[in-house]
Amino acid sequence: MKFNIPSYVKNVIEKLEEKNYEAFVVGGSIRDLILGRAPSDFDVTTNARPEEIEEVFQEYKTLSVGKAFGTIIVVQKEGNLEVTTYRVEGEYLDGRRPSEVMFSNHLVEDLKRRDFTVNAMAYNANTGLVDPFQGREDLQEKRIKSVGNPKERFEEDHLRILRAVRFAVQLGFTIEVNTYRACKDMGYLLQKISMERIREELFKILLSEKPSYGLNLLKDLDLLKVILPELVDTIGFEQHNPHHDKDVFDHILCVVDHSPPILEVRLAALLHDIGKPDTFSQDKEGIGHFYGHDKVGAEKAKKILQRLKCPNELIYSVAILIREHMTQYANYKDKGLKRLIKRVGKDRIFQLITLQKSDRICSAGEIKMDVLTQREKEIRRILESAEAYEKSQLKINGKDLIQLGYVPGKIIGEILDDLLEQVIDHPQLNDKEKLLQIARKKFRKNS
To answer: Domain tRNA nucleotidyltransferase/poly(A) polymerase RNA and SrmB- binding spans what residues (predicted)?
Structure first.
C-alpha cells in the first residue's frame, strides 16, 4: 500500500533516513489516508532523540517547545511538522499525563501507547504500512477499538472515553463491544477531567456531520449525565402538544442535525428547549404549554456554557439565539424587524432565522417556511439599504449634542435613544440637520 505523502513530509523522513534513523508518518493522518480523506495535518515519529533531530535539521528553523516530551517542530514553507521520538510512558497519576516519558528505539512500543487501533498505524515508503494492532481491519469494519485493554487505556487518560464517542461520530463508526463497556463503566472518570478538555471534544461532536449520533451515544453510555446533566431531564419528556410529535430530547436531536455546522447555531439548537421541563403546564384539554421556556432556557444555557469555560462572546451569542428563538414574525413590519436586529445584532440575525427554520422542520404538521423566508428577505433589504437600527448609525452623535449645549452625562444617551426610536419609525428623519432640530426642541423643553 502506497500513500500520497506531501513533499514537505517526505523531505523530513528522507533527511532522517539519510542519517540512518527510522522515520514514519504516524497516527490520524494514516487513518485518514486509508479512508480516502485529506488529513488535516501530519506527524512524524522517529528513533532519533530530540537533540539528534535538531542536529539533522540544523539548517532549518526548529521549535523545541515540546522537547521534554520528545517533540521538535521542523519549520518549512509548506507547513510546520512535529517530529517526535519513539516513546513509552510511565504511570498516569492524574488521568491525563504520564508521570514520565521514556524514549524508545522501537516503533511498536511507541504505537502501543496510543488510544485506538485506527490511530496506531505508521507508514513510510520503504517499509510500507506498519499495523501491529489491526487498525486497518478495524477501519474496514468501521469500529473504534482500544489498543490493548480499554480499561487500562481509559485509566491512563480519562478523556479517551469521550474521544471514543467523538471518533465514532466523526467517522460514522460503531464502538467495539469491550471498548463500549469500558466507556460506560468508567464514564464517572470524566468528572476528573478539566472542563476545557471536555468542551473541545463536545464541540467536535456537535460540529460533526450527524451530531445526533454522538449525542445518542453519550446518552446510551450514561455520559450525558456527567457532562450535560441538564439535558437528561429532556429525555422521554413528552410535550403533549399538537405541534410536536417527539419528546423534547428527540426534538432537540432533530434540530441539531438540521442546523448548519456553525458552533453558535449548533449550541443554540442543543440548548434551545432546555427550559421546557421547568416550564411545562397543561390546560383543561390536556394540551402542553411551555410559557417562558425561551427565557428560562437562555439563563440555563449561560450557566452551562460558563461551566464549560466558554468565551463570553460565545455565551452571549448562544443565549441571545435561545432567548429569541420563539419570536413570531407574522405581524412584523419594518419597525419590528429593525428592533429585532438591534436586539440580536446583524451578525446573529440570520443565525436566528436558520435556527428557527431547523426548529420548524422538526415540529409536527405541515412545514411552512413562507413567513420566515419573507422576513429574511426583508431583513436583507433593511441591512443593504443601511436603514438605522442602532445608535451608531444615526447621523449625529454625542459630540453633536454637547455642541448644542447638553452637559455630558446620562442625558446624552437618553436623547440618542429617543432619536433612534424616531428614526426607526421614520427612516427619512436620519439626517443631521433634522436630528439637530429635534434635539434643539428637546433641549429647550428640558432646559
So the answer is: 172-231
Q: How many CB atoms lie within 10 A of CB 229?
A: 10
Alpha helices (runs of H) in 129-159, residue ranges in sequence order: 135-140, 150-156
- Domain ranges across the chain: 7-133, 142-227, 229-387, 391-446
**Helical spans, DSSP H, in 4-117:** 7-18, 28-35, 50-56, 107-112
In this chain, the answer to whether the domains covering 7-133 and 229-387 adopt an identical fold is no
pTM of the model as a whole:
0.89
Query: Per CATH, is 229-387 categorized as 1.10.3210?
Result: yes
Alpha carbons 141 and 139: distance in angstroms, whole number: 5
Contact 244, 364 (CB under 8 A): yes
Quick one: what percent of the chain has pLDDT higher than 90? Answer: 74
pLDDT given for residue 326 in this prediction: 93
pLDDT at position 405 over 90:
no
Signed CA dihedral, 390, 392, 395, 399: sign only: positive
Candidate CATH numbers 3.40.50.300, 3.40.50.800, 2.40.50.140, 1.10.110.30; the one for domain 142-227: 1.10.110.30
**Cα separation values, 268 from 228, 253, 320, 323, 405, Å:** 14, 12, 9, 10, 46
Contacts (Cβ under 8 Å, ≥6 apart) of 384:
none
DSSP element (H, E) containing 76:
strand 71-76
Q: Which amino acid is at 441?
A: K
Q: What is the pLDDT of residues 304-361, one digit of tens each?
A: 999 999 999 999 999 999 999 998 877 788 888 998 999 999 989 999 999 999 999 9
Average pLDDT, the chain: 92
Q: Mapping DSSP to helix (H, G, I), strand (E, B) and coil, where does residue 116 land?
A: strand
pLDDT digits (tens, 9 = 90+) for 110-127: 999 899 999 999 999 999
78-82, 144-148, 386-390: which range is least confident on average?
386-390
